[in-house]
Amino acid sequence: MSWLWIVLGAWLVLALGAAVVIGRGIRRADREEIGSTLDWDATKLDIEDTRQPRD
Question: Do 36 and 42 touch, CB atoms closer than 8 A?
């Protein structure tokens, strides 16, 4: 019966590791997509765009 706890514990550790790796990959992709580590406020960008319209 103890082997069941060992298997469940190992599965939990692997699942947690996978979640961390996937989360880091998503965070890195977001930073590369935006080009910065800053948090952007889309409404503020729309307001700035109306003041200085692009060609």
Answer: no
- Tell me the per-residue pLDDT of 1-55, one tens digit each, with 9 for 90 and over: 899 999 999 999 999 999 999 988 888 777 666 655 566 666 666 555 555 555 5
Strand positions, DSSP E, 1-55? none
Query: Based on C-alpha coordinates, what's the Rg of the chain?
Result: 21
Q: Are 34 and 40 in contact (CB under 8 A)?
A: yes
What count of Cα atoms within 13 Å lies in the side-chain half-sphere of residue 41? 4
Reading phi first (left if > 0) and then psi (alpha if -120 to 50, else beta), residue 40 is in beta
